[in-house]
Amino acid sequence: MLETVRILFALATLNNWHISGLDVKTAFLYGKLDEEIYMEQPEGFKIKGQERKVLRLRQAIYGLKQAALAWWRELANSLKEMGFKCLYSDAGIFICQHSNGTFAIIVAYVDDVLFVGPSKSFIFLKKQLFMTKWECHDLGDCKEFLRMRVTCKGQSIYIDQCSYLDKVVERFGMTNAKYACTPLPTGYTPTPNQGEVNPHLCTLFQQIIGSLLYIMLGTRPDIAFAVTKLAQFAANPSKEHLDKAKYILRYLAGIAKYALVYKGASNKGLIAYTDSDYTADLVKRRSTTGYHLKLANGIISWQSRPQKTIALSATEAEYMALSDCSQQVVWIQNIFTELGFPVQPTQICADNEGGIFIASNPV
Fold it and tell me: Structure pTM?
């Protein structure tokens, strides 16, 4: 979902689209249940003389595992009645085409909804129709979405997580720590902890890594390698792993104001870059795949993770990275096709002659 949101931000700045947001109040309470579910009478609402009886739920409540699915079904059905069609490539994206050629795109993530499109009047019309169906809080022009601050400056859109990052840095006591210049120390290679699990250390490490993962997935591709590398040791971290997780926080604290920028004036289309680190994992001997894709001269998608199988050469590792990157490119091209954009061949840049030769060979 975060990747799709960034794609739409990039498309919006390239095509001068309008972006408006709203928040659905108590969204999960709208979902209808197909299953037979009972609950105890809540405190303060017990019927005198019938305390042993239970209540049957007809609609979802917060805390049910299926509440999110029930709400999404209700949302999808209502949007279908409004003329919207769900994208096959991403179930959280809906599009409505008008007879005059204009359209409106809806991005729905639980109770946070964005309306995107070239016609402000058409977006407003669909937004008002949506708000007559559900009780909502109109947020006006998009300023924030999924804890990402959205700032429009001319033909550019900036997205950042400065506010969330400040809270994370303060939460783990790194506000006044000495800033680091890199996400991890140069040449550092983490190794598994052979000692017993320390529950307190493990909990703290997982809390830091979880917060870093959300920041990394949202707006910070520069820490992708460091965070995913340390996350592999979350089951039994050592004191050294915890120190390196805090090292990433020190790095972020020093450049907390960084943002992803999508420049409409650049008129830049989709382009991909990929690389691999051969046998980077000295324990499991697996290589690392890394790639990122840019649109409107800003990064919209990135990945850094161990490869699923062991590569026997640098060429093989690079080819596997090219394969993973090409799958992501095809998925984004499918989104473009469903949104009605003409799809051109996407250039994928790599730096290994052997991998490029194998990928280019039609045999």
Answer: 0.88
